[in-house]
## 1
Amino acid sequence: MEIANKSRTRAIIAQYEFKFKKKFGQNFLTDANILRKIIQAADLNKDVAVIEVGPGIGALTEYLARAAGKVVAYEIDAALIPILEEVMAPHAHVEVIHEDILKADVKSMIETSLSTFKEIAVVANLPYYITTPILMGLIEARLPINRYVVMMQLEVARRLSAEPGTKDYNALSIAVQYYCDVNIAIHVPKDVFIPAPNVDSAVVVLTRKSEPPVAVKDEAFLMELVHACFKQRRKTVLNNLAAYFEGLTKEEITTLLLEIDIQPSIRGEALSIEAFGKIADVFYEQIKNRG
């Protein structure tokens, strides 16, 4: 019997006397139909290697093992390692690493273990409490990962795919869309997990862009400026930038914004990535010239 089944999941939990740890945000998926959809969305074959984060007891890992050429699964909870080793024993191409993905040297792992594969995908039911740090950590590291197919809270998925002028559009939307094309592929009800989370979920497909939508002088500075413009969401770009750039007066900031046809009274939520790119470059030059 497959792991992705409520009775099998409960049996494994009982056999190993496993206790859920709230601090790790553990919710085990028990719906085989959704797992099949995830595999389809991930577009896997034996030339693709997969990095999984938070495999739990291996429900998704089992499906990944059938479809991919290799699976490297990072699990932080020591109590889950013996379970994973047993249920994954038939799959020699599955490697379980007991490590916090936020501290792992994923770049070195890819270079030593996955360099022969044509593509690399991250496929995971991400721990909801650290979805953003995991995603942004991997994306901003510029690793040779072609796509991310990840389960997350529906609310976060909507932010990732949000467009300017909508209530869900924020700094995370821009940060992710700068690097990836975003598509919400699957809506997932909360009752297909053990234990059930408090909210519904979604599987999002992030496909790495060959080039960012706008070229900027300094990407790190762009991201800092975007976060600054959303620091107080209801405040104007002028007021948020004045709070961020303590060395610049509001008059100086206004002048710089008008030079690139950005109205100082606009809010960050109304600005496109291209507009933020213009703002970043003009302020980067201003700050650099001041030394």
## 2
Amino acid sequence: MKKTTFLFDFDGTLADTNQIVIDSWQHTFKAVKGNPGDEKWIISTFGEPLWLSMENAFPGEDVDEMIEIYREYQKQHYKEEIRPFPGMVDVIRELKRRGHKVGVITSRLRPTTEQGLKAFGIFNEIDAIVCAGETEKHKPNPEPALLGLKKLNSAKEDAVMIGDSDFDIICANRAGITSAMVDWAIADCSDTTGPQVASEELIPKENVPDIFIKEAEEILNLA
């Protein structure tokens, strides 16, 4: 079935923010503990709300203070370090040219999400955005995806959600939306016992996507 609504994750899917996220975490670890953190663990948190990752990383510390250290570093380096993944800008524009609805469902805050979309020249192509803090529950709970559908006035059977982490896939599957995993993900989506699914019980194979996307242009085959 062809889709008319396309929901995209931001970090790691639309935008290559992998290195700045890792660097922001390492800056925070060094500032708080004096040593860098485990990069594999950092990558395993991709897609998770930042406050939850910070609670896990720094138990007993002031989470707001840890987040401020992280965000201050990212604020200073964000603009020059982020870039869209190859082909994604053209895909978004082509989807809109064909008359489809496009949304962004992200665990990033709205200001830097909008900043990134504007830097890529596609902010005006996005019909709806759901960011961290705009729903009571976060990925992998389906609430952010369902809110996106509500904003777009779209039915779940008409939608596909495209992401790079277990959070995105579980969120889509729980919402009853076709799930698609991009091949350029660096998150370890085979680890279903770590922080990526610790917030909710995982049903077997719930993190298995319906579709794998090797190149951005393949998304257009669903339109």
## 3
Amino acid sequence: MLSSISKVCSTIKKPFEEEGRYMMDKETFRQQGYQIIDWITEYYANIEDLPVMPDILPNAIKAKLADSAPTTAESFGDILQDFEKTILPGMTHWQHPSFFAYFPSNTSPYSLWADVLASSMNAQCMSWITSPAATELEERVMLWLRDLIGLPGSFVGVIQDGASTASLCALLSARERFSNYKINRQGFSDEKFTIYASEQAHSSIDKAVRIAGLGSEYLRKIEVDSDFALIPEKLEQAIKKDIEQGYTPLCVIAAMGTTGSTAIDPIQATGDIAKKYGLWFHIDAAYAGTALLLPEMRWMAKGAEMADSFVFNPHKWMFTNFDCSAYFVKDKDALIRTFAISPEYLKTNADEEVNNYRDWGIPLGRRFRALKLWFVLKGYGVEGIQEKLRGHLKMAQWLRKEIEQHRDFQLLAPTPLNLVCFHFRPKELSDIKTVNRLNKSIMDLLNKSGKIFLTHTSLDGVLTLRMVIAQTDVRQEQVENAWSLLQDQAKKSMEKLREGS
């Protein structure tokens, strides 16, 4: 597909051949840069010709790689040819318009160029003084985002690498504020904090509880309703029971769009309970939070003003390269007191006047993530982003209606956003184990074909096919093609099942 680019690259000399030292000259760098831009352009122009997911066995790529690193420099053309021959065939193409799996990790030209610029400067953005523009741009774009998604002015924001890290920051901040910052100093003594989240909460919450030293046994998974959203009454019952037994309720996490089905926990009711019992209230809107850029979707966030912290990921559905997670807090001092460590070599004269984002999270070193967010917001404008989001939502609703009208397919969860949860279940099949195996087979065969990529979850013990429509430039025709492929494969799999019975 891209071999012509590699042929051109092979004519470029090895960067170190003539200089006799390990420094690339400007003209060689320029030529290689042109080739990379051409490669990227061709990649996106022809991405639909590639299989979404490679049909390879585990360890197949590793077997093609040399056992040891090269001793001498290779030509750029040889490197790129090796990339195309060895690496590209083993890639799952997350930017493919027929990628309907998991949740998206979208990019866009604006984000891509910003990442190139940021990488070229390779700034270490731990403090204001290490990159003043990076720090001040981050502060500004986070205020833009806060206002765009409808959070009140009492929130301030910082860019984290992911929602997993942001949720961990929330739990650590809650832990320290409730212990008067004693645990950071002295470690745990006899604290028995309890944490609450729905049965459908993301696995990152389980991991954060472990890392924060709170203990998995103290994470209460609250029952969900028929729409897979947290039941407030069950939450309050669990809190009361823990108080009676001598535990200290610490934090409740509400999901605004669960991973399995994009269920929306009742934010208002959960916030009221958190306030009543004095818990830290964290909202995990990692995927669905982007939809709040649409005024008509703000119903999801009713009550969000009561939260202590809120996270969503522009790197999921806002066309911004991974990694870029927007984390908002009300109590900035609690966040900083939890994480700030200021050895003498990090102190500067500007510390009292600026944000030093190294103190707003776990890592000391920080990438210049704000630049790509700024490029995306300026490149598309709010209206351009909104238009794309509305298009994705419209396509998902089209698919939902198609499934509702089909006699052998069933919806398995509401479709508040652009994830459609369903399965294939002809009326003649009554055994759920058989239905689950059938749907797993349908999914596996479609994924193996490379034409589309789907993933699954389990809802009430039912294997559920998930189709998320959120690629940056996905078109209606591609959604219709995926639906046709699903129906055709379901028919073939059912015929095979009948033949074997």
